[in-house]
Structures are given as C-alpha cells and as structure tokens.
Write a structure and sequence with these properties.
The structure is a single chain. This protein has one domain. The chain is mainly alpha-helical. The protein has helices spanning about 1-50, 55, 65-85, 85-105, 115-150.
Length: about 160
C-alpha cells in the first residue's frame, strides 16, 4: 500500500514538473520574441542611417549606424540562446543591455531620453531579467526531473 502511494505521489510530482517546464518554455518564447523585436528595430535603425543619413541624421550621427547594426545582431544571437535556455546567453544579455543603456545615455542618444526608447528599454530589461530567471529555473527543474524519474542516474553506465 505504501509503495502505491509513493508511486502516485511521484507521478503527481512528475506531472507538476512537466507543467512548469511547459510554462517556462512558453515564457522563453515570449522573451525571445521581445528580444528579436528589439534586435530588428536596431538593425532597421542602423540600415536607415546607412542608406539615408538625412532621414534620421538630426537624431543620430551617421557614424552610429554600424553600432546599431552590430547591437541588433548581438541581440538577435542572444535571443536564440535565451530561447534555448542558455544561462550564459541570459547573463551576457543583461551585461550587453546595461552597457547599451549606459553608453547611450552618456552619448546623448535621443532615444534614451524619448518615451519610446524608455518603454522599449524597460520592456527589454524586464524581459531579460525574466529570461535570466527562466533559464536558471529551467535547468534546476530539468535536473530535479531527471532525479525523480531516474533518468539522470548516478552518471555511470551499466556497460
């Protein structure tokens, strides 16, 4: 009787872990989507400055077009890492984001003082923090899931 109750408790625990992992996967997709949006906006801004410097020349110096493109490509790559629950990418995203915020406010970037830039950066900070927590929680749950289902084992093969 005791063994049957343990099996039911273990099955419920495994099911709860699966649901939590599904929820974390959904959140990671949303966060990666926010990062891709921000990356595309940076790439578009950089390309606009490159192709038509007079279009946005009053807001940004044309020499910053390369910086916007590189920053956009960086966020694009990091979004793939966050989507795949890579903890290193989540930490690097936070570092790049804060460095971007510091350098843009020091350089007098007009978007850092504009409401649209503030909203986008705030959204990205919230998403990046959430992504960081999701990545670490995901790996903790996967490790616990493997221990509960005995998939992780002791790391030794039976061969």
């Amino acid at each position: 009787m005791q063994n049957h109750e343990n099996t039911l408790g273990k099955a419920q625990e495994v099911e709860n872990m699966r649901k939590t992992l599904e929820r974390i996967n959904k959140q990671a997709r949303i966060i990666a989507g926010i990062m891709v949006l921000y990356a595309v906006m940076n790439i578009f801004l950089g390309m606009s400055l490159t192709l038509s410097p007079s279009f946005l020349g009053a807001m940004f110096p044309p020499s910053t077009s390369f910086v916007f493109i590189i920053l956009g490509l960086t966020y694009l790559g990091l979004s793939v890492g966050v989507y795949r629950h890579n903890r290193a990418c989540a930490v690097i995203t936070m570092v790049v984001l804060f460095a971007d915020m510091v350098f843009s406010s020091m350089s007098g970037n007009i978007l850092s003082h504009h409401i649209i830039g503030t909203i986008m950066r705030s959204l990205l900070v919230i998403g990046a923090l959430h992504g960081l927590f999701c990545c670490f929680k995901y790996h903790t749950l996967v490790k616990a899931y493997k221990m509960v289902t005995n998939e992780g084992g002791s790391g030794h093969s039976n061969a």
